[in-house]
Amino acid sequence: MTSLQLLNPLVFAGKRSPRVWTTGVTPRRCLSVDVRARDQKMPPPQAAAVGSQEVMEAEKRVMVGTYNRPPVVIASGKGCKLYDPEGREYLDLMSGIAVNALGHGDPDWIRAVTEQAHVLTHVSNVYYSIPQVELAKRLVACSFADRVFFSNSGTEANEAAIKFARKFQRFSNPEKKEPATEFISFTNSFHGRTMGSVALTSKEHYRSPFEPLMPGVTFLEYGNVQAARKLIKSGKIAAVFVEPIQGEGGINSATKEFLQSLRGACDDSGSLLVFDEVQCGLGRTGYLWAHEAYGVFPDIMTLAKPLAGGLPIGAVLVTEKVAASMKYGEHGSTFAGGALICNAALAVLDKISKPEFLRSVSEKGQYFKEVLTKKLGTNPHVREVRGLGLIVGVELDVSASPLVDACRNSGLLIITAGKGNVLRLVPPLIISKPELEHAAEILLECLPALHGST
Fold it and tell me: Does pTM surpass 0.85?
C-alpha cells in the first residue's frame, strides 16, 4: 500500500529528568562497529570453547521444536557485527527482529546494566523502585500518554491493552447491560502469540493450531476506511488495534487518511484506538513514535522490542481516561518493570530520543532506500522498496527465502516478512552509511539466487 505524504520528522523528544542514582555520563555517538578510540585496534573475536555443530546438535535434544532456525550460532556481537563460535563475521540487518536499536555492546547500555546490577535487580511490584518510576516519567514526558503500565514483552503489552479496553467500556458505561467487548484488527496484522494477542493476529498459521481463540474479533482490510467506520459505528467495538507500520505483515505503511478516519470514528462511538508500536516505535521510523509521522494520536500505545536494548520489557502507554478505569489488583506482573530492566531502558531512551539521533535515523533510512532502489530496482523480481526510517521492506514477486539464505552465506543477516516474499531490513539504529552500502552490495551480489524461484 502506498502511503500518503508524511509530515517532516519531529525533533521534540520530551522533557528529561536527571538520573540521580547513577554517575552521569555523556552518551557517545556510536554509528560504526568500532566504538573504541581510533588508535585502539579491535581484536578479532576468539573462538568459543564450544563449536557451532555441537550447539545445534544439543539444541535438538533439549529444546522444544518451536523454531526453524538456520544453521548459524551467534556467540558474540559488537556494534552492527555478530560472530559465530568459529569467529565468522556477519553484518546484522535484523537486530534481533528490531530489538537491538543501539547495536551490540553499547558502552552506555552496559554501564547502566552493570551499575544497576550492583545496586538492585528485582523486588517485584509489591514495592516502589526508582528506575521504574523514572522510566514511566520519561515515557509520559515524551509522548501523548498520562500513565504507563509495564509488562515483559510486546504480546503481554497487547494482552494488557485488551483488558484495559474492556474494563474501560464497563467503567464508562455502567448503565449498559452489555457494554462493548469486541475488537477490530486488520489483514496482515501481528500483535503477539499469547491467546488474546494471537486472536488479534490475522495470519492463519499462528491462529489455527490453538483455536478456539478469544471471540469477538473482526479482521478488516488494512486501509479500508469505509468498512472500519461502519463497524465502529455499530457500538459493539471496545477497541481498534492497528499498527501504523506493519512489520511482520510486510512493511506496510498506513495512510494518514486511514488513521485519521479511525481516530474520528472511535471518538464518535466511544471505542478506544490502540496503536501497536512494538516494532515500528521508539525511533525506528526516524520519529520517536511512528504515529507522530501522521499527526494522529491513540488512546493506548503498546511498546516493547527496542525499549530495553535487548532485555525483556513491554509497556502500555495510556491516557488518563483509560487509566482511571483500572483498580488495584485488576492487572499486574511479577517481573514487569524491574529495576535492572528499567535502568537499561533509560539508557536506550536517553540516546534514541535525542533530536540529532532521530534525524540520523531518518537520513540513513532515506539513503538506504535510495541505494537499494538504485542497486536492486532494475531486477525483474523486485516489485518495490518501501518503508520509513530504518524499517525497510523489499517486496519480491517470488519467495525471498533463497535470497535470505544466500545473503547469510555471504555474511549478511536479514529476515522475511509478509507472505515470505518481503525482505525485512531492520538494522540497529546506529548503523553507518558505509555499512548500509555494504549490505546493499551483498544483496545485489546475491540476487542470482532468485533465478528459478517461484
Answer: yes
